[in-house]
Amino acid sequence: MISVKPPTSYKDQVEKLRFRGCIIDDEPEAMQILSKVNYYRFTAYFLPFKKPDGLYSQGTNFKTVYRIYEFDRKIRHVIFSAIEEEGHDHAGFISRIDGEKKKRSKEPFVQHHNSKYNGLFPIWAIIELFSFGTLSHFYADLPWGSQKHLARNFFQCHQNDLSSWLHCGTVLRNICAHFGRLYYRKFSVIPNGIQWLDHANNRSLFGAISAIRSLYTDTAKWNKEVFDPIKNLVAEDGGDIQLGHIGFPLGRVPTT
């Protein structure tokens, strides 16, 4: 029987990073960071610097990787504010809606429909309780003709494209919700029908953000809540962020 690895001290973690070639100028500061950030979560951000032999490329600096980690944390917060979660079967869908009704039972429109209509909500009211994932699966469960009508009339796209954008948004939301890494990540789903994406970046963070952009019909809202914050994060970076590692061609952030 193989036993799990014993826990290591923050000092040992620093030495392990140094052994692999990481430059650590301020050891107390590095130990303080490692005391707050899970070692295995943090070392995933060394992937762009990792050589085939497991060591890090020359010049890899702890502070650089930490700035990348912080950039990832902040951009995750920006994205998370724009999207929500997932589920699928009909019973689960109804259960999710019932849960939202209970959670938001003090809201006037929920109280109104509970008291006057015995808990029955028209679609234009119940949709106020939808999370991003609930919306994605609601769309997937619609008749083909209804999917086609919504896609063409509201998003000017094919219904399969809209379905893929909703799926991408759900996956992205779940990664953000579980504090997953976005930087230097290859996503499992590809957004369809987005002209500025190609094979080189369709599975990147740029591709996932492009899918979310395609769902926004309000350009001013997108620019204020997503584009400007991301642009500011990139501007604050100071050169540590390799935009190619998140799929942004020539530093582009989707705006239109």
Explain this structure to me?
This protein is an all-alpha fold and 256 residues long. Helix content is 55%, strand content 0%. It has helices spanning 10-19, 27-36, 39-43, 62-80, 90-103, 108-116, 123-126, 132-141, 144-154, 159-177, 205-215, 219-236. The longest helix has 19 residues, at 62-80. The chain is elongated and about 65 Å long.
Q: Strands, helices and their partners?
A:
Layout: H1 10-19, H2 27-36, H3 39-43, H4 62-80, H5 90-103, H6 108-116, H7 123-126, H8 132-141, H9 144-154, H10 159-177, H11 205-215, H12 219-236
Keywords summarizing the entry:
mainly alpha; 12 helices
Which stretches of 5+ consecutive residues score pLDDT under 50? none
Kindly provide the radius of gyration, computed on alpha-carbon positions and rounded to a whole number of angstroms: 22 Å
How can the largest sheet be summarized?
none
Oligomer: single chain
Number of domains: 3
Strand percentage: under 5%
**Helix-strand pattern:** HHHHHHHHHHHH
Number of DSSP strand runs = 0
Structural class by sheet pairing and helices: mainly alpha
- Percent helix: 40-55%
User: Which word captures the global form?
Assistant: elongated
Q: What is the overall pLDDT average? A: 85
Q: Given the structure, what is the number of helices?
A: 12
Distance between the termini: 57 Å
Summarize the structure.
With 256 residues, this protein is mostly helical. The chain folds into three domains: 10-60, no CATH class; 68-86 and 131-256, no CATH class; 99-130, no CATH class.
